[in-house]
Amino acid sequence: MSALLEVRGISKTFDGFKAINNLSFSIGAAELRAVIGPNGAGKTTFMDIVTGKTRPDEGEVLWAEGSKSLLRMNEAQIAREGIGRKFQRPTVFEDQTVAENLTMALKAERGPLAVLRWRPSPDSEARVAELAAEVGLSDHIERKAGELSHGQKQWLEIGMLLASDPRLLLVDEPAAGMTLAEREQTTTLLCRLAETRAVVVVEHDMDFVRRLNCRVTVLHQGSVLAEGSLDHVTRNPDVIEVYLGR
Amino acid sequence: MPRFFLIAPLLAVLMLAGLAAPAAANPALETLISENIDQIDQPSRRTVEPLVASIAATGPEGLALLQAWADRRLGLLDGRAVIADGDALTDAATGAPVTGDPKMLRPNSGVRSVIEAALAAGALTDPDPARRAAALDSLSRSADAEGLAALRAALDDPDPALAARKARLERLLTIRHDPDSAARVAAIEDMAGDVGLDFRAALNPLLATRRVVSTTEPQGNIADELSPGSKDLPREAAIALLIQEGALDPALTPAEQRARLVANITNGSVGGIPVAQLSDPTARDRAYEALEAAGAVPPAATAAEIDAALETHRFFDLYAEPDPAVTDAAKAAQIRAQVRLAAMQGIDLALDALSLASIYFLAAIGLAITFGVMRVINMAHGEFIMMGAYTGFTVQTLIADRTLSLIVALPLAFVVTFGAGVVLYRLVIRHLAHRPLETLLATFGVSIALQQLAKNIFGTQARPLTAPTWLEGSIVINDVIGISSIRVAIFVLALMFLALFLFIMKRTRLGLEVRAVTQNPGMAASMGINPDRIAMMTFGLGSGIAGIAGVAIGLFAQVTSELGQQYIVQSFMTVVVGGVGNIWGTLAGATLIGGLSKVIESLNPSNTLAAQTFMILFIIIFIQFRPRGIIPQKGRAAEV
Amino acid sequence: MTRTPFVLRHPSVLVVLTVLAVFTAAVTAGSAAYGSGAIPVSMIKLLGKTLCLALAAVAMDLVWGYLGILSLGQMAFFGLGGYMIGQWLMYARTETIVAAQLAQQPIPATAQELQDAVTNQIFGVVGSSELPLVWSFAHSLTAQLILVLAVPGLLALVFGWLAFRSRVNGVYLSILTQAMTLALALWLFQNDSGFRGNNGLSGLQNIPGLDHVGQATLSVWFLWASALALALGYALAAWLVSGKFGSVVRAIRDDETRVRFLGYPVEGFKLAVFTIAAMMTAVAGALYYPQAGIINPAELMPIASIYLAVWVAIGGRGRLYGAVIGAVIVSLLSSWFTGGRAPSIHLPGYVVNWVDWWQVALGLTFVLVTLFAPKGIAGLFDRLSGILPPRRHGRDLGPDQGALQEKEATA
Prior knowledge:
With 246 residues, chain A is an alpha/beta fold. Chain A has helices spanning 43-50, 75-81, 98-105, 112-117, 122-134, 150-164, 180-193, 206-212, 230-235, 237-244, and strands spanning 3-14, 17-28, 32-36, 58-63, 68-69, 83-86, 168-172, 198-202, 215-220, 223-229.
């Protein structure tokens, strides 16, 4: 299995603090992976680097078939390559309707001219309706996103991610603030998504990670401490000491 | 003859002394007068010199006589020389008052110049240092070879400062007047590197040139050969020179051609060409040629003639000074002087830049504090500066003593603008928390209201804010380097505020809390710090400093309601360029902007508008490379 | 979404255009040239100029209300548009006058003589006798009309590219736009920049070739042109902010980072809107100054742009009609109060003379609007039509707000 994303030996220092220290990581084209680690382990910085928000001091980030380097691209170009990111707190455009939010996320040309020429088609409208149904927002499609509940916003954002159909999905603490039923639903969704694409879940909640039932990468002080199944890593004495042993 | 006016009062004092003590009669002078009475009556330029020298040698009375002679106040009465002072007459030799109707002497200018030189020379050795200094002054303003000789004879001086002045003047006069080239070269080389205006003035006449056109290399001390069309000799100038020298017929300008054609219109055509066609330049040329052929107009130089004349003639700059050794030495000395001068001007520029930077620093520091803590741009900041300046003006109208009024005005301006800042914060800014753009606009509303209010209260005319006398004048280091005292004071004020600010930030509870709120407002709030109170205090502090800056700016600029507007954009730039939330950033920004505007101004001194334009362009480009300023805020929080 | 015609989906466009048409017809009916003559020529010019200002306000609203960039340099484009058309107006008119003078001469003038005389006439005041390079196209109306769009457009493109590329945002960007217009104004103030320094361009109310028409008629023509420009500009702006493009633009205003992660080239969108708005503003300026008659660099000073922002804020930003209402009401009130026609208020012991106090009142009104009616006058319309907007930022005050605050303020 060739890797979809390969991160090689990246390091990043903020004012003397090494947030990422010679980190290497790779994920296959259809794989679910959980990344765990204590606060300050470098999880967020890692995601920032992959999505182009932060530029590492050294190392390489290679993408897909041609092993393209992502380091020279900006956030928008990386997103167009097929890397989607879900933030911890739901970030939807609250001043716009659910339909507008989803329409914006639909896979289409992103350039200003193309967007100006873009007209809703029966296909696009059907797709928006389908996505709204999938995330349970069919009844709210003409409501402004700002009026939705916290959980509904989470779902709307997931719907937007689905709309753009990424090849790699980075999800930051999806379970935060969700009810038990919603967690169940999220787990199912993530597992299903991972059948056709790579999904990286950054999570604190061990219980949730256990439900995902996937390979786990443990980060500590900016580098990989252990990798393997959850049971495997939880038996690792280093991991127990820094993360679980408290 | 300015030197008389300087010496005359001293002589008058001397004569009064003579009147008081007639016993101080001068027998040597008396003898001299009686022996040479004819020559005193009818002096001649060529023969009078030894006599004048002898009279001068007899002492103060002799000098008084010479002075009176030169002033046309000397008369002859019964074979004695008498000095007229108004209606009173005194005997030149004895100092005794006399009566009678003397024959007043009217020496010609040649004789007078001999007398004056002798007077100056005599004064150089006068026992009174003030008179020696006055004599040096007059000598340095107008001296000739005789003056030089007199000076050389009187180089020794008990006063070291005067001795140094004499030595320097001797060198300068040697450069100008010594007949011996070797001595002049030596003098030039002695002084090379000096940047004094007097030395540069002495060199200039040596290097003066005149431009000569010739077919061959001319006689004389050639400075340079110029080729027409070069930067120093544009083609037009070369042609003008040739025409002036008669080497070329005057060329025909379009206006002249037109005038001559107009003068030759016959029956609606010129030279056989209808007038209507003359809007075409080639038709005009053909018409003119036709007229030329008919002999109706004088021939004009053609392009070919001009080219030929330029080809055959050479253009030279000749030194007026014949000796190449002198001009070479002068040239070398001038270059050295220019290099030194450039270095000095650099220092002067740096001083200017420093004082401008201090002003920007004072104006921007308040803005930087509020922006750093609250991320709020206060557009009314400029009006707080204005408010401070008007406070200074009001205090000055109430307290006459300028020093005292300044001492009162500085803290009062702080209090007034601190209060205004707190009011603005409580009434407006607090309610717009976390909406920086709205705050910017709301404070702009305050800004236009305050400006108009100031106009309504104080009128539109500029109000003076006069500095105390001890702040007037300037500190002058040499002819090039000088800085006005007010600017030094502002620099000191800026340093004081830097120190005060650092003290508040690093050593007080308030500073600690401000830093905490700046770095992480949420965390600070949860630690029990009241961010609202901190914001209010910092806003007040920033506004208060603006008020003090206003007083400082008012001291050298006119106080008008638009005073703040002139500084606000530069203050913004200082904050943006320096970086946010760091006093050193503001300092760096102020230094950069102050220095830059002075440098650009010095490159293009005639056009201060261009300087400002270039500075703003520079800042726009600077932001491209350091979007967060010179000293950016640190930490991951700043990355958001 | 069903495909309904554009105007039906956006009825406010129809309302605004209808009001504009009725207004124009009414003014025409009251003009001396085409109707009763009840409205003096100066009033028609004032109304025509106000329409141009409204167009500039619409462009400002595009940039600020929709894209979220508080541009404090928008009037630079307005002034540039005016300068570009002013060059032709001044050159062509001077040429006509000079040609008439030269025709009195015994022999006809050459092309060079004509140009020299024109140059002398225009640039004598700044002591120059050569036609500056920037006037190379001044003889051609077509070229200058193209430049009306091209020069401000290019300036916006270059400036925007530099600023957006380095991710300058929020207050920093506002200050930078202010610096841009200040730099331009200072440059124009110089005599050797070739635009007659602080004399500016004058006599622009005389249209070359239309001397026989007369100001009474010309003023109505310009009113029509201004109304047409406003109508077209309004429709263009309304079309831009509708649909997916408008959706993306508003999304950039609300959360630029998120839009980037959706794959949209944010800088491209910003640049497009900024440039289009600059060109709209330039057209407004090109129509304004022939009615004003004179343009000088003071018109480009930052204060003018800030006033534009004030109008839009009072009218209600994020609503195109709000911008129009704000510009029309505030600028008309301003000229009424500062023109000395408003009656003074007699208080005991003091007479409030509006010429002196209008600025104070405007400033304070503006503060009050910002504080209590952030949606401006357009907010009233929303309330009337019952669209009570949802609370957009429903989060509590507290630590979270710190992040939002920083994001808006830093580059």
